[in-house]
Amino acid sequence: MYFKKYRVQCFVGPLFKLLEVVFELLVPVIIASIIDNGILKNDVNHIYKSILILVIFSVIGFSCTLLAQYLSAYASVNISSDIREAAFKKVLSLKTINLEKYGSSRVLNTITSDINQIQLGINLVLRLLLRSPFVVVGAIIMAFTFDKRLALIYIGVVLVLAIIIAINFRKSIPAYKDARLELDNVVTETDDALNGVRVIRGFVQTENEFSNFKEHTNKLNILQKAAAKINTILNPATFLIVNGCICLLIYFGAIEVSIGVLTSGAVVALYNYMNQILVELIKLTNLIIQVSRALACSNRVATLLDYEEPSIDTDVEFEKENYVEFDNVSFSYNNDDAKAISNISFKLRKGDSLGIIGKTGSGKSTIGAILAGLYEQTSGSVRYSDSVNPTVGYTLQKTRLFNDTIKFNICLNRENITEDDLKFALDVSCCTDFVKTVDLVLNEGGKNLSGGQRQRIGIARAIVTKPDILILDDASASLDAITEKKFIDNLSKIPYELTKVIISQKIKSVKSCDSIIVLDEGRLIDIGNHDQLISRCEIYREMNKLQTREAEL
For 285, which of 70, 96, 206, 447 is 20 to 30 Å away at the CA? Predict the structure, then answer.
């Protein structure tokens, strides 16, 4: 599929290589003629004419090589670029849980290193896959035109080396695949260390972290050496076998010259053909090494591109009433018996506000992620009232900011966002307190902002498109009490019918919601407004009592 777009370059490039080979195979014939008909017969004119022909062949061959190299490079670069683009689109289309299972380190290696190896493999295949066998076969045929018995030596060389190359090829692909998998582990270890460097230093775990990293790199080193050892025999074996055959060729060639069967020029031509075979077999062995790497990498890329996300059989009929409904929704992160949430059911009408509260690990964020479409329920149904799902604005617990302007971090290049929309989002999220210009460039991760400022940028990002449903997952956790109250007041004054889902551990954040869900260990304990839950829900009442006491202290 990816080659089809560049089929002209993939077809024409190797053809120029074959044309170059034709001229290359004729060179020993001309040299033999120079020796036999020019030097031995003292014919200077013949020598000059032959040299002129060689010069013409060189110019034509160089032009063919240049065109072939350009077309091969053009095709390989563009094909790998298209594969990389398709892989990146695939990654962006994966559901969050499946992306987490696949692994960020594996994705990173696939999109960068693996595809680079594929690019190099394609380039070498287009340049050498036809050229090298054509030179070898052509040299054998040309050798038969000089001496049939000595040409048998060429056939023996090719057969022996073909067996060695086939065995090597069979063993090298699994070895390189194992090495690439361990490279994923090294990248994961490095990424974890960089992201958690403050925690590692704070708890004096630098040495332990270094030991873990060293363990993975040592294992990678062993696997890479094992893969390399498989290929180390190729070049020495090629040199040994071909040079041994050159010695036999010269020995038997000298005998046949002495008895008048062969001319001196013919022996030189046969020697040159054997050298051509030597050079091409060395190129071919290097091609085999690179192709084995590229195939191992292409299997990893294909696994990503062909990944089919599992779907569940659920009732997806839409109701006429305007609400979102969870009907016996359950979810498990690993599709095992340990469910994050179990049998959750509730209805959310348009314009209503829903609070979700519970202890850490009770499943609050999981419900928000399913409602936002980041995760797909393991069982049960999530139904929306309209034939087209409502737009959702979602703030994560940890706001991810990019090394770009505040405007980019809020708008994210989304279309149809006007300056008025941006100002509206800044006002509602209380960002105007610290944002003097939206063109301010943030450091990577927004490290030049406080935690509360980063959260407010995240809230503005969710609000700027004026979504139908706004999900705030602990969005006010880092806000001070005054800013949080101002933000909640701003939400209540939004001039359109906005459906709000507020996820929090703080009762004051959800107190004013139309209904509040109380969760415990993934199960819905009760649902009602603040006053109803105070009167009948022991868990909610206890949380309120503790938080009220903490506020008084």
Answer: 70
Are 510 and 374 found together in one domain? Answer: yes
Which stretches within 196-205 are classed as H helix? 197-202
Closest CA to 86 of 121, 104, 110: 110
Q: Which residue has the tokens 């002209």?
A: 8
Report the DSSP pairing between strands 523-528 and 392-395. unpaired
Token duo for residue 248: 């036999």
Residue 21: which domain range? 1-144
Ramachandran sector of residue 184 (left: φ over 0; alpha: ψ -120 to 50; beta: rest): alpha
- Show the DSSP H helices in 383-434 as ranges: 406-411, 419-428
Distance set, CA 291 to CA 176, 272, 287, 433 (Å): 11, 28, 6, 58
Q: Tell me which residue of 289, 287, 301, 282 sits closest to 173, measured CA to CA.
A: 289
Tell me whether residue 254 is in a domain: no
DSSP class of residue 320 equals: S
How many distinct structural domains can be found in the chain? 3
State pLDDT tens for residues 482-527.
888 898 889 888 888 888 999 998 888 888 899 999 999 899 999 9
Regarding pTM above 0.85, the answer is: no
Token pair of 94, please? Answer: 């994966």
Give rounded-to-5 percent helix, strand, coil for the chain: 65, 10, 25
242-276, pLDDT tens digit by residue? 778 888 888 888 888 888 778 888 888 888 888 88
Q: Helices 131-146 and 7-33 meet at what angle, rounded to 10?
A: 30
Compute the distance between CA of residue 379 and CA of residue 394 in angstroms, rounded to an integer: 23
Residues 6+ away with beta carbon under 8 Å from 370: 326, 329, 331, 376, 377, 382
